[in-house]
Amino acid sequence: MTIAIYAGSFDPVTYGHLDILKNSVDIFEKVIIAVAYNPEKKAFLPVEDRIKLIKESTKHISNVEVYSFEGLTVEFAKKHNASVLLRGLRNSADFEYENQLAQINLSLNSNIRTVFLTSKPQYSFISSSCVKELVSHKQNLSKYVPECVEKFLYKKFDY
Ligand code: ADP
Protein backbone atom coordinates (compact mmCIF):
# COMPACT_ATOMS: atom_id res chain seq x y z
CA MET A 1 0.00 0.00 0.00
CA THR A 2 1.53 3.33 -1.06
CA ILE A 3 0.61 6.25 1.14
CA ALA A 4 1.24 9.78 -0.15
CA ILE A 5 1.44 12.98 1.87
CA TYR A 6 0.08 16.09 0.18
CA ALA A 7 1.46 18.86 2.36
CA GLY A 8 0.84 22.56 2.01
CA SER A 9 -0.71 25.65 3.52
CA PHE A 10 -4.12 25.26 1.83
CA ASP A 11 -4.94 28.77 2.98
CA PRO A 12 -7.62 28.32 1.60
CA VAL A 13 -8.02 25.13 -0.45
CA THR A 14 -8.65 25.86 -4.16
CA TYR A 15 -9.73 23.98 -7.30
CA GLY A 16 -6.00 23.85 -8.15
CA HIS A 17 -5.23 21.81 -5.01
CA LEU A 18 -8.31 19.65 -5.55
CA ASP A 19 -7.39 18.86 -9.16
CA ILE A 20 -4.01 17.51 -8.03
CA LEU A 21 -5.77 15.53 -5.28
CA LYS A 22 -8.33 14.08 -7.71
CA ASN A 23 -5.55 12.62 -9.87
CA SER A 24 -3.55 11.37 -6.92
CA VAL A 25 -6.32 9.29 -5.32
CA ASP A 26 -6.37 7.04 -8.42
CA ILE A 27 -2.62 6.46 -8.13
CA PHE A 28 -2.10 5.99 -4.38
CA GLU A 29 -4.04 3.78 -1.97
CA LYS A 30 -4.21 6.58 0.58
CA VAL A 31 -3.52 10.32 0.35
CA ILE A 32 -3.01 12.28 3.56
CA ILE A 33 -3.50 16.01 3.26
CA ALA A 34 -1.11 17.60 5.76
CA VAL A 35 -1.98 21.18 6.59
CA ALA A 36 1.09 23.06 7.70
CA TYR A 37 0.79 24.86 11.02
CA ASN A 38 3.52 27.39 11.58
CA PRO A 39 3.07 29.55 14.72
CA GLU A 40 5.76 31.94 13.40
CA LYS A 41 3.87 32.62 10.16
CA LYS A 42 0.69 34.68 10.09
CA ALA A 43 -1.92 32.66 8.21
CA PHE A 44 -5.06 33.99 6.52
CA LEU A 45 -7.25 31.26 8.08
CA PRO A 46 -6.62 29.34 11.32
CA VAL A 47 -5.53 25.76 10.70
CA GLU A 48 -8.87 24.41 12.09
CA ASP A 49 -10.82 26.33 9.43
CA ARG A 50 -8.46 25.22 6.66
CA ILE A 51 -8.95 21.58 7.73
CA LYS A 52 -12.72 21.97 7.98
CA LEU A 53 -12.91 23.36 4.43
CA ILE A 54 -10.67 20.62 3.02
CA LYS A 55 -12.77 17.94 4.75
CA GLU A 56 -15.95 19.43 3.36
CA SER A 57 -14.48 19.69 -0.16
CA THR A 58 -13.19 16.10 -0.15
CA LYS A 59 -16.02 14.29 1.66
CA HIS A 60 -16.89 12.34 -1.54
CA ILE A 61 -13.37 10.80 -1.73
CA SER A 62 -12.90 7.73 0.47
CA ASN A 63 -9.11 7.36 0.51
CA VAL A 64 -8.27 10.84 1.79
CA GLU A 65 -7.40 11.84 5.35
CA VAL A 66 -6.71 15.35 6.63
CA TYR A 67 -4.44 16.39 9.51
CA SER A 68 -2.45 19.39 10.60
CA PHE A 69 1.27 19.14 11.24
CA GLU A 70 4.14 21.15 12.58
CA GLY A 71 7.78 20.67 11.68
CA LEU A 72 9.43 18.65 8.92
CA THR A 73 7.22 17.03 6.29
CA VAL A 74 9.52 13.99 6.06
CA GLU A 75 9.08 13.36 9.80
CA PHE A 76 5.31 13.56 9.44
CA ALA A 77 5.51 11.18 6.45
CA LYS A 78 7.61 8.66 8.40
CA LYS A 79 5.16 8.74 11.30
CA HIS A 80 2.31 7.88 8.91
CA ASN A 81 4.26 5.20 6.99
CA ALA A 82 4.12 7.27 3.82
CA SER A 83 6.74 6.79 1.12
CA VAL A 84 5.65 9.60 -1.20
CA LEU A 85 5.48 13.36 -0.87
CA LEU A 86 3.00 14.67 -3.40
CA ARG A 87 3.38 18.20 -4.77
CA GLY A 88 1.57 20.10 -7.51
CA LEU A 89 3.17 22.03 -10.36
CA ARG A 90 1.58 25.00 -12.08
CA ASN A 91 4.49 26.29 -14.15
CA SER A 92 8.27 26.40 -14.45
CA ALA A 93 8.57 28.84 -11.53
CA ASP A 94 6.86 26.24 -9.30
CA PHE A 95 9.28 23.64 -10.63
CA GLU A 96 12.38 25.63 -9.62
CA TYR A 97 11.15 25.95 -6.04
CA GLU A 98 9.60 22.50 -5.78
CA ASN A 99 12.69 20.77 -7.16
CA GLN A 100 14.86 22.38 -4.50
CA LEU A 101 12.41 21.31 -1.80
CA ALA A 102 12.30 17.76 -3.21
CA GLN A 103 16.12 17.51 -3.19
CA ILE A 104 16.31 18.71 0.41
CA ASN A 105 13.63 16.26 1.51
CA LEU A 106 15.40 13.42 -0.32
CA SER A 107 18.65 14.30 1.43
CA LEU A 108 16.80 14.17 4.78
CA ASN A 109 15.22 10.78 4.08
CA SER A 110 16.17 8.79 0.97
CA ASN A 111 13.24 6.37 1.44
CA ILE A 112 10.68 9.09 0.84
CA ARG A 113 10.33 10.27 -2.79
CA THR A 114 8.61 13.38 -4.09
CA VAL A 115 6.11 12.89 -6.92
CA PHE A 116 4.92 15.88 -8.94
CA LEU A 117 1.56 16.11 -10.66
CA THR A 118 0.39 18.95 -12.88
CA SER A 119 -3.07 20.48 -12.75
CA LYS A 120 -5.33 20.93 -15.76
CA PRO A 121 -4.67 24.19 -17.70
CA GLN A 122 -7.94 25.73 -16.46
CA TYR A 123 -6.72 25.39 -12.85
CA SER A 124 -3.03 26.06 -13.31
CA PHE A 125 -3.25 29.81 -12.67
CA ILE A 126 -5.16 29.48 -9.39
CA SER A 127 -3.38 30.16 -6.11
CA SER A 128 -4.55 30.69 -2.53
CA SER A 129 -2.96 34.15 -2.56
CA CYS A 130 -5.06 35.22 -5.59
CA VAL A 131 -8.18 33.94 -3.83
CA LYS A 132 -7.31 36.02 -0.73
CA GLU A 133 -6.86 39.09 -2.90
CA LEU A 134 -10.20 38.49 -4.63
CA VAL A 135 -11.98 38.05 -1.29
CA SER A 136 -10.69 41.43 -0.15
CA HIS A 137 -12.23 42.94 -3.31
CA LYS A 138 -15.51 41.09 -2.75
CA GLN A 139 -15.26 39.24 -6.05
CA ASN A 140 -17.13 36.11 -7.09
CA LEU A 141 -14.93 33.10 -6.27
CA SER A 142 -16.90 30.31 -7.93
CA LYS A 143 -14.27 29.66 -10.62
CA TYR A 144 -11.49 29.21 -8.07
CA VAL A 145 -12.85 27.48 -4.97
CA PRO A 146 -15.68 25.06 -4.10
CA GLU A 147 -18.98 26.59 -3.03
CA CYS A 148 -18.44 25.71 0.65
CA VAL A 149 -15.16 27.66 0.67
CA GLU A 150 -16.71 30.68 -1.01
CA LYS A 151 -19.64 30.70 1.41
CA PHE A 152 -17.34 30.32 4.41
CA LEU A 153 -15.08 33.18 3.32
CA TYR A 154 -17.95 35.57 2.66
CA LYS A 155 -19.55 34.72 5.99
CA LYS A 156 -16.27 35.08 7.83
CA PHE A 157 -15.58 38.48 6.31
CA ASP A 158 -19.20 39.50 6.75
CA TYR A 159 -19.86 40.41 3.11
P1 ADP B 1 2.81 25.79 0.14
O1 ADP B 1 2.66 26.95 1.09
O2 ADP B 1 3.51 24.59 0.72
O3 ADP B 1 3.30 26.14 -1.24
P2 ADP B 1 0.17 25.61 -1.01
O4 ADP B 1 -1.09 25.37 -0.28
O5 ADP B 1 0.34 26.94 -1.65
O6 ADP B 1 1.33 25.28 0.02
O7 ADP B 1 0.38 24.49 -2.11
C1 ADP B 1 0.47 23.11 -1.80
C2 ADP B 1 0.88 22.37 -3.07
O8 ADP B 1 -0.15 22.50 -4.06
C3 ADP B 1 2.16 22.92 -3.73
O9 ADP B 1 2.89 21.82 -4.27
C4 ADP B 1 1.64 23.79 -4.85
O10 ADP B 1 2.57 23.90 -5.90
C5 ADP B 1 0.40 23.01 -5.26
N1 ADP B 1 -0.59 23.84 -5.93
C6 ADP B 1 -1.25 24.93 -5.43
N2 ADP B 1 -2.09 25.45 -6.35
C7 ADP B 1 -1.95 24.68 -7.46
C8 ADP B 1 -2.54 24.72 -8.78
N3 ADP B 1 -3.41 25.66 -9.13
N4 ADP B 1 -2.15 23.77 -9.66
C9 ADP B 1 -1.24 22.83 -9.31
N5 ADP B 1 -0.65 22.74 -8.10
C10 ADP B 1 -1.00 23.66 -7.19
| Small ligands present | adenosine-5'-diphosphate
**Low confidence ranges:** none
Averaged pLDDT: 96
Helix-strand category: alpha/beta
Number of helices: 6
Number of strands: 5
Shape: globular
Order of helices and strands: EHEHEHEHEHH
Task: Provide a brief overview of the structure.
The protein is α/β, with parallel strands linked by helices. It is 42% helix and 19% strand.
Task: Describe, in plain words, how this protein is organized in 3D.
It is a single chain. The protein is α/β, with parallel strands linked by helices and 159 residues long. A 5-stranded parallel β-sheet has the order 3-2-1-4-5. The longest helix is centred in the middle third of the chain and has 17 residues. The chain is globular and about 50 Å long. The N and C termini lie far apart (45 Å).
